[in-house]
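Key idea: predict the complex, not the pieces.
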Amino acid sequence: MSVQDNVVFILEVIGTVAFAVSGALVGIQKSMDIFGVCVLGVITAVGGGAVRDIVVGIIPPNVFRNPVYATVAVLVSCLVFGVMYFRQSLSSERLGKLYDGAMMLMDAVGLGIFTVVGVNAGLQQGYGDNAFLLIFTGTVTGVGGGLLRDVMAGVPPYIFVRHIYACASIAGAVACTALYSVTGMTAAMFAGVMLVLVIRCLASHYRWNLPRISLENE
Amino acid sequence: MSVQDNVVFILEVIGTVAFAVSGALVGIQKSMDIFGVCVLGVITAVGGGAVRDIVVGIIPPNVFRNPVYATVAVLVSCLVFGVMYFRQSLSSERLGKLYDGAMMLMDAVGLGIFTVVGVNAGLQQGYGDNAFLLIFTGTVTGVGGGLLRDVMAGVPPYIFVRHIYACASIAGAVACTALYSVTGMTAAMFAGVMLVLVIRCLASHYRWNLPRISLENE
Amino acid sequence: MSVQDNVVFILEVIGTVAFAVSGALVGIQKSMDIFGVCVLGVITAVGGGAVRDIVVGIIPPNVFRNPVYATVAVLVSCLVFGVMYFRQSLSSERLGKLYDGAMMLMDAVGLGIFTVVGVNAGLQQGYGDNAFLLIFTGTVTGVGGGLLRDVMAGVPPYIFVRHIYACASIAGAVACTALYSVTGMTAAMFAGVMLVLVIRCLASHYRWNLPRISLENE
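Result:
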């Protein structure tokens, strides 16, 4: 493996861990048992990548060929379950804050990493001349895992209710696509991840508000 | 591009506009902000086509290669959001009626167009000798976008609760498949779209009722 | 067709019937009309197989090429609707018990059969040297139909709330993968199906409980 392959692999593992944590947390909040929590962790962690691979024509998807992603996701989900199990004594208020913060951060890390990994996968498959495809594939890969997680768990998807979620992913994908020919892929990927993280954290911290329509007839 | 390619492209753009409007309207009713509304508009507009392309083996799907569909969907979603934003002053009753009528019509137009476009995609990929595949692909393409929209937004899917929804799509796909060798594809597609529209409008206007089981133990 | 092809085909038809029944029952419980019930029956019955085919590279998926699966699913769904329609006179308590039992059994049969059919599809596509892929493909095929059914119908997915659901499928896939080179595929598939059925029935009968976290702040 080249240096860049290693960078991509390490990023993917970190993203898998982050998304598995977010999936496990949602499962715990929905009162699922430990198996349900693991399943949701795995779906969140491998879902985005599976969709990406099918879309760019890597069949069977990589997550089906290489057991490392599913294994990591199961281990992480069990770990999260164990930690939360022994934290039940915490006051509910502190737990709620911990939960919200952990969800936001883990989801943002997964979003950023899978976005740039998606751009990279499009490039590897030879679509470097189609910037739109790279950006769209990056965004679908980034938001896919979290969207599957929320739809399966029956909670309102993050992407529709959180501040500037899809936009952060698009911004990261655009940055990565624009930079890779100048800075090399490794630097472009880091820049993309950082941009997504910064946008999501700022939007979450300052609770950027966007126009919304309140229909009276509801 | 041949004349027929142009017809297909124009139909696809009209269908994209119609489904984007329906997605944006659902997003607005679920009190999403403008970004959420755009995301739901795009998912509804490109979802059916993406599923169709993966199913018939066009990979990456056309919507990933050609930015026109996503761009149109974003613009239309923003426009719908803008119009509704300045219509908040309307009485809630009139708004509710407007909403229901607009949803029904836009959804029916998208359903009809994507159904025949799906049949056409199956033909282009060389499955003309398998009428079942053409009809099934047409139906999946037609109902796919709306199904994704409703599942993501957490509302009961149109396809399960509306009068004769999947049946209208199947009827349109059958008509298009049966006619194309006789009348040519362009006429067959128009006939299919019209049939879907007429069936949906009649079913909606006369509120055709179908047997339903009321379980007492619920 | 060889003997083994016949065995696979017969298993698939039985699995299609079982999943169609489970889909129709969920549709009836959600008060869908007869068309909605049929659509949900078809989605449940062909969903898992369609996902499996796309994942292992059989494009278009077999369910799009061969009308027998969708036809069987429609007929079975109508039959279930008809039977339940004339059973409305039953006391609600007896109906509730009948419903729960039928759902559990039909879902378990479908789960078991589609799991081993998924393993077999991976083998047929030449991935016999990758046990992880076989097991993962089997599990995705097994749980896919029921997951689609529950997400579409807006009920909490079986896989997250039922006792040892994904685990039963994984166990069946592992058994089938481990045995086929020793016992031949036919025996391995039967062993896999039986294992899934036994695990699910035991778990359901004895209501095996798994650790679960009750968050106070909900």
